[in-house]
Amino acid sequence: MTPTRRNLILGGGLVVLAGSAGAAVLLRDRQLPPARVYSENGLAIRGTDPVAYFTEGRPVSGDPTLTHDWADTTWAFASVDNRDRFAADPTAYAPQYGGFCAWAVAEKGELFSTQPANWAVVDGKLYLNFNDSVQARWNEDVPGFIAKGDARWPDIVASV
Asked: What highest taxon heads this organism's lineage (predicted)?
């Protein structure tokens, strides 16, 4: 798989990202609980399989007959195996910030919708964004936006 402007896949517990100035930034393991999950008609990620981002490196539509309910939301999956993986450990696969736009959480401290095609897996965590232009902004400083989003998320959680 080749990287695109829409995604950045980095795995493992510790990742080094090179910034535009050539500086390296270390990211560490973390998991932030969702206050609520972005969904449309009760379906997370517009019906996209969250596990597929990790196993196939791309968004894959879920089968509406293969679902699991978690965090007051229904999640769809492309396979029984993916559903069972998610059910065993939802926080390992669910998008950060409840699936709301990661850039908006970081920059505005607000909850905006997302598109399944605008995503990144960074340090083993899934992040979704609003659209192509927001994803491009996110890609300019992924570690910085994650740090800002992580700092703002507790206040957002407390307010919903």
From this structure: Bacteria
How far is it, in rounded angstroms, from Cα 20 to Cα 9?
18
Q: How many helices (H) and strands (E) does the chain have?
A: 6, 8
Predicted confidence (pLDDT) per residue in 95-113, tens digit = 999 999 999 999 999 999 9
Give the integer Cα–Cα distance in Å for 57 and 35. 26
Question: What is the C-alpha to C-alpha distance for residues 142 and 131, in angstroms, rounded to an integer?
Answer: 16
Helices 132-140 and 142-159, interaxial angle, to 10°?
110
pTM for this structure?
Answer: 0.80
Positive or negative torsion for Cα 59, 48, 107, 29: negative
